[in-house]
Design brief:
The protein is an alpha+beta fold. It is built from 7 helices and 6 strands; from the N terminus they run αααββααββαββα. A 4-stranded antiparallel sheet has the order 3-4-6-5. Strands 1-2 form a two-stranded antiparallel ribbon. A hairpin with a 2-residue loop joins β5 and β6.
Length: about 190
């Protein structure tokens, strides 16, 4: 059996792995116990003690839900976590922007402006992760982020703001504004 490559096991990376694992399963396929989650984490290169997993899940605000019809209960990570929200003021905006760029590069297949919105298509089941990090951005013009399974929608104040946000997210051109009647023109090579 080939040895697994070493993956640094930082708390943030472990939390991302837990979020990815729990968001991808529900019902009969859901993760039902700490032991089961520890096994899946270990299989993905994140071995952790049960107390560590319990503490991570409490910090992330994980909850166990139950389907009353089948009696099956499984763990989920809610989209909003008040404990994590308190971190926003402590994180450097540049760190958040770097993390957003990593998520965009790793998981996004397309970003399109439609009116005052930026529609972002991701690889399967990565929409929640990408939306989560985009929601932490403090960019002018972003009003809200709606997460979906395979993408997200960034609501902006105007078409112009949506165009600029898309350009910044995909790394195209500058954030130039054009006041012509035809609307903003993406920056191109000069």
């Amino acid at each position: 059996m080939a040895a697994r490559p070493h993956i640094p096991n930082t708390k943030l990376q472990r939390h991302q792995a837990i979020r990815r694992i729990l968001n991808g399963r529900s019902g009969r396929d859901g993760v039902k116990t700490y032991r089961e989650l520890r096994a899946v984490l270990a299989d993905n290169g994140f071995p952790a003690a049960e107390m560590t997993v319990r503490a991570d899940m409490a910090e992330m605000g994980c909850v166990k839900i139950k389907d009353e019809a089948t009696g099956i209960a499984w763990w989920i990570v809610p989209a909003w976590n008040p404990a994590a929200e308190n971190l926003r003021g402590k994180l450097d905006p540049e760190v958040v922007e770097r993390e957003v760029m990593v998520k965009m590069t790793a998981h996004v297949s397309d970003a399109t402006v439609v009116g005052d919105r930026v529609h972002i298509m991701t690889e399967p089941r990565a929409g929640y992760l990408v939306a989560y990090w985009i929601a932490w951005l403090e960019w002018q013009g972003i009003i809200a982020v709606q997460e979906m399974l395979d993408g997200c929608i960034v609501y902006c104040a105007s078409l112009e703001d949506a165009t600029i946000v898309r350009q910044r997210l995909v790394g195209e051109g500058g954030a130039d504004r054009d006041d012509s009647e035809d609307g903003p023109v993406p920056a191109g090579p000069e």
